[in-house]
Amino acid sequence: MEENRCKVVVVGGGLAGLAAARMLSGYRRGLEDVVVLEADSSLGGRIKHITGLAPWPVEVGPEFLHGRKHSSVRRIAEEMGCQIRELPYHILLCILHSLITISKFDRYYLGHEGRMVSSSEADEHTDILHVHQIFERLAEEDPEVPDMSMAEYLHCKGVNRVVTQLAQSFYANDFGCSLEQLGLRECIEEAQQWIYGDTYLILDRPLSSIIDYLSQGLQVHLNWPVVRVEYTEDKGVRLWSQNGSTICADYLILTVPMKILQECVVEFDPPLPPSKLKSIQSIGMRNALKVIMAFSESFWPEDLFDVICTDCFLPEIWVTQYPDVANEASQRTALGQFVVVGFMAGELAVAASQLSDGDILLQALSQLDSMFGTIIGSTTLNAEPCSKPSCVFQDTIDTMNSDSQVLEPGGEMMDPFPGVAEMPHKLITRSELHHPEMASWDWKLKPASTSFQGGYVMNWELQEYVRGGYTHPSLHAHGARRTLAEPLLGRVFFAGEATHPGVNPCLQAAFDTGQRAASEIIALANPSRL
Ligand SMILES: Cc1cc2nc3c(=O)[nH]c(=O)nc-3n(C[C@H](O)[C@H](O)[C@H](O)COP(=O)(O)OP(=O)(O)OC[C@H]3O[C@@H](n4cnc5c(N)ncnc54)[C@H](O)[C@@H]3O)c2cc1C
């Protein structure tokens, strides 16, 4: 490679970019001369974790692989020798004499009643069954139906307030937005094109290990934020970074998040065509917040995994336990032995991000106190707290900043868990929350607040090179993802989760779009090989 020229330049070192670069470099025949340009100081994009909070690295972005079938990311994980755990997500229920699939989470907390609904109770709860039926049956809807928001769609179906609340907390929040922003036609498309199955998969190591694996041997330039792209049919592309560096290539694969395109962080010359601009503006990407809390004791039933919460601050919480082997690499003492993760997206996340991180944690703890405080000792939910040892209290931990690095081709295999995608972060400890009455609280009534050891709030809007959570099925955006994915002049190719035609803002979608863009270049460069 000449110093400032390569065959293919990939912008963005997230899963999509690395999938594309790896495929091209493995294909050879002249296309292996690939350079990945990443704006951030580490690879991984939305795949990031923090250490020091729990005895395992805690994912602050994606955590689960959705579905076990057709998943390229699962195949990579297996190739790496990962142990994969499966969490059931859907079950079959017999309703009205017909067998239908019902999405079913572990438990539900109905905030307006102040009541936890167990999974067996949920099987007979009319509103819970109703909301799942509505969303499951989207796959049977006419894809050409006039578009409307899911809020309007539910209104047309005449559902009650509880069903609407469940739809917001379960489906809209998971899709990354509010019911008003969730578009019916893209929801139908997503339901009809989902081919991955219904389980949640968890790896035995942080997702950044996949990033480390994929990036081995690739030429990567970190801290290289692209600000300008010039492209012509005959000469290819020239890219500028913020500090004036340039690089030329025959082909470009652009994988930056949707917000980066919407906020015109990258200037194009010639400007992007109107159809492309229209699709960029029509695909929604809202904020997402992960609220991660570490505790000295577990105060929830031992078999609990996930709770969907209506009329609450956090619409969804989950409890995941990982092997602690991964943290050994970082030599850190964990603040707590048990972790609860809260997830909020869309308008809820926007509203919450007006609060300080400390206030977010206080609200989240207060919700957990309400949910679990009154049920401790109750036989109905088997809520006997585990008797695991408390962890040692520890003051604020500042993690080291990741240094920028260039991974040269044929570079050394990295450590098993080097934390390339570990974020620089500051944990908030118990002593920093400053609630005047905390010391006098009764553990049984306020189990979360009293056993809280430390927490972290990940606000994705504040990540300079992501600026939100992920794209969601959007109103009046039907077909926009295909338009967005179309190449320009046979030189500029588009990948990244937003470009998946099946409206699939997941890890495997990101990966598949990277491979799709790489195949488009292979087809152009070597048509006879296809
Ligand atoms: C909180 C949260 C939870 C999630 N949970 C799950 C989950 O459980 N399961 C799941 O499957 N998916 C989940 N997702 C979605 C998943 O993370 C994404 O779909 C996927 O990681 C997107 O990969 P990508 O390569 O398309 O984009 P990214 O990972 O965002 O990569 C894009 C890269 O482009 C870089 N970049 C931006 N601008 C520039 C520039 N100007 N120049 C150079 N580089 C630039 C960015 O720094 C970034 O590294 C979650 C996402 C979030 C935020």
Question: Would you kindly provide a written description of the structure presented here, covering whatever features stand out?
Answer:
The protein has 17 helices and 25 strands. The two termini are 26 Å apart. Helix content is 28%, strand content 22%. Strands 1, 2, 12, 13, 14, 15, 16 and 25 form an 8-stranded mixed sheet that branches. An 8-stranded mixed sheet has the order 10-9-19-20-21-18-23-22, with helices on both faces. The chain folds into 3 domains: 5-41 and 222-284 and 472-529, FAD/NAD(P)-binding domain (3-Layer(bba) Sandwich); 50-60 and 201-205 and 287-402 and 412-462, no CATH class; 89-198, no CATH class. Strand 19 (306-310) and strand 20 (316-319) form a beta hairpin. With 530 residues, the protein is an alpha+beta fold. Residues 90-103 and 376-419 have low confidence and may be disordered. The radius of gyration is 23 Å and the shape is globular. Flavin-adenine dinucleotide binds at residues 11-17, 37-40, 45-47, 61-64, 66, 225-226, 255-257, 260, 265-266, 288, 290, 460, 465-466, 469-470, 496-497, 505-507, 510. Pathway: Amine and polyamine degradation; spermine degradation. Belongs to the flavin monoamine oxidase family. Keywords: Oxidoreductase. InterPro entries: Amino_oxidase, FAD/NAD-bd_sf, Flavin_amine_oxidase, Flavin_monoamine_oxidase. It comes from Sphagnum troendelagicum.
